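Dear support,

Our group has been running a series of protein-ligand predictions, and this particular one with coenzyme A is the one our PI (initials K.S.) wants archived with full inputs and outputs. We had some confusion internally about which version of the output was final, so please treat the block below as the authoritative record. The input we submitted was:
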Amino acid sequence: MSLPALWVTQIPPQDDPAWEKLLSAPERARYATIRAPLRKRQFLASRALLHRALALETGLPAGQIEISASYGEAPRLINPPLPISLSLSHSGLACACLLAETPCGVDIEDLSRLRDVDALAKMAFSAEELAQYKKSPGIEHFFRLWTAKEARYKAATNCAWLGRLSFGPYRLCAALPLTGLKNLVVC
Ligand SMILES: CC(C)(COP(=O)(O)OP(=O)(O)OC[C@H]1O[C@@H](n2cnc3c(N)ncnc32)[C@H](O)[C@@H]1OP(=O)(O)O)[C@@H](O)C(=O)NCCC(=O)NCCS
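Confirmed final output from the archive:
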């Protein structure tokens, strides 16, 4: 097993019927409650990615992996209870999952949606982040800072079950150049 491992994929035009079979009982229950079509596809594709990534990274059969699916929480490996921290992100038709042996967080953003990033920066960034953003304003720099902030937040809230109640230490994955996937920032 060589962790941390970051898995990124683009959701294909059709859902694969095999994906639903990979879901654990809590994931199935949550999936059944999601109504919005894109959100439903994101949930299914990102969970299938996570199950496949875990199977390949650990050597366990994909059908035997049980993952939690509580709303507003990071996914957690219930069975087998290995000390692997999981993080998920989806944006548009892209999704990413990160597996690590220390608390981790991943965030992905599809840059193709038009947004007033200057206004968002003023609203969401700290004074320090805003000063950094202003050195080189623009959509890509904005989302590099934004995804880093979201990934840090996820990593920090992902600590408790590993017995760490404070922020860090955690390992953050660097933004990657993604071949084949355009207009994405991952952190
Ligand atoms: C919870 C939050 C991190 C989710 O991020 P998002 O960009 O809306 O959505 P993403 O697709 O990237 O991530 C969603 C996934 O994060 C995971 N997640 C949800 N809450 C989480 C938490 N508290 N900690 C860790 N992971 C969490 C879940 O797996 C979720 O997917 P699922 O519902 O399909 O299982 C975000 O909504 C939030 O509250 N951020 C707070 C920090 C902040 O103020 N950010 C402002 C921008 S800089």
